[in-house]
Amino acid sequence: MENYLIAMAVSAGIYALMALGVNVIWGFAGMVNLGLVGFFAVGAYVSALLTLKAGWAMAGGMAAAAVAAALVGVVVALITARLRGDYLAIGPYRGALAPEAFNLLYLAIVGIIVAIAYLIAERLRTAPFGRVLRAIRDDEQVAAVAGKHVTLFKVKAFAIGSAALGLAGALYAHYTSYIAPDIFVPLFTLYIKLALLAGGLGNNRGAIVGAFAVVFLLESTRFVIPLVPGISAVQGAAIREFLVAALLLVMLRYKPTGLLPERLPRFSAPSAATRYQPTA
After folding, report:
1. Mean predicted confidence (pLDDT) in 137-166
2. In the chain, what are the domains?
3. Disulfide engineering: 101 pairs with which of 97, 209, 261, 267, CB 3.0-4.6 Å?
4. What SS3 class is residue 62?
5. Coil, helix or strand at residue 87
6. Angle (CA) 68 41 259, round 5°
7. Which of 14-28, 60-74, 176-190 shows the lowest mean pLDDT across its residues?
8. pLDDT at residue 280, as a whole number
9. pLDDT tens per residue across span 165-183
10. Residues in Cβ contact with 72 at an 8 Å cutoff, skipping those fewer than 6 apart
11. Nearest residue to 161 (alpha-carbon basis) of 69, 258, 239
12. pLDDT value of residue 64
């Protein structure tokens, strides 16, 4: 049970990292990305190939995964901004450590990366860059009239968010030691979207809370299905998805803006004396 709980915490951390990345793209800049699992896959394969085939260290593979996903994100953003069976056996220290120690080590790695990503995302949110992104989200024409290069800001946001998605993919690949094309399904994108909606779109803390909430709902329903008699495995999986959706709908009914709604920073207006200083 201990290993199971740690594994779920690792999964939730990876979801949280993805949610933070998507929050920059969607929550800050207002760009809806329905193909985020593609960037996740890019990161997973780039890190896996570099560490397995080229002999890179895991840290180097993860950095390359983030850069590769960011570059793909730039290409995709440049295109979209103008518009309205193989497996890899990888894993750090998996053979040298007992399963319990490996799980704890990986949980620490994921926790540190998520914490760093959160601090970066918070810095972006409060910086002028984040304020411009929110202005673009709310009305990009007004932002353009104010002299902001809308396309450039969108490309930057997409690159930053895609880098986080690629890094999450690399973390996933090294943890599971197995990746295949059928893993990267559209449903994965839906889970991250739900995490943001449940936690609070535009709020970095909400992204993390929502990711853990979605993983909790997914795993808790796993124990409910066996209690339902006379259903097949396929029917059980369908009921599971229904329960998760129903629980999230109930939550959004009472918390339509998420558990931790976005709170925009307030800036006090300059006083009349400050605005109109006499000149010598």
Report:
1. 94
2. 2-262 (1.10.3470)
3. 97
4. helix
5. coil
6. 100
7. 176-190
8. 45
9. 999 999 999 998 888 888 8
10. 38, 39, 42, 162, 166
11. 69
12. 97
Q: CA-CA distance, 165 to 46, in Å (whole number)?
A: 12
Task: Report which of 209, 202, 184, 221 is spatially closest to residue 261, judged by C-alpha positions.
Answer: 202
DSSP state of 202: T
The one-letter code for the residue type at 131 is R
Instruction: Kindly state the tokens that stand for 117.
Output: 């990503």
* Whether pLDDT at 11 is above 50: yes
Give the H/E segment covering residue 164.
Answer: helix 150-176
Q: Which of 208, 170, 167 is nearest to 16 (CA)?
A: 208
Q: Which of 6, 19, 203 is nearest to 114 (CA)?
A: 19
Indicate the average pLDDT of the chain. 87
The pLDDT > 70 percentage for the chain reads: 89
- What is the Cα–Cα distance from 120 to 142, expressed in whole angstroms? 27
Given pLDDT bands bounded at 50, 70 and 90, which one contains residue 97? Answer: confident
Residue 85's pLDDT is what? 45
Check pLDDT > 70 for residue 121: yes
Token duo for residue 102: 């490996």
* Amino acid at site 233: A
Buried b (16+ CB within 10 A) or exposed e, 176-206: beebeeebbeeebbebbbbbbbbbbbbbbeb
Phi, psi torsion values for 278, nearest 5 degrees? -65, 140
Measure the CA–CA gap between 157 and 15, rounded to whole angstroms: 19
* CB-count burial class (<10 Å; 0-12, 13-18, 19+) for 261: middle
User: What type of residue is 148?
Assistant: K
Count Cβ atoms within 10 A of the Cβ of residue 275 and give its class: 0-12 exposed, 13-18 middle, 19 or more buried.
exposed
Label each residue of 218-253 as H, E or C.
Answer: HHHHHCCHHHCCCCCHHHHHHHHHHHHHHHHHHHHH
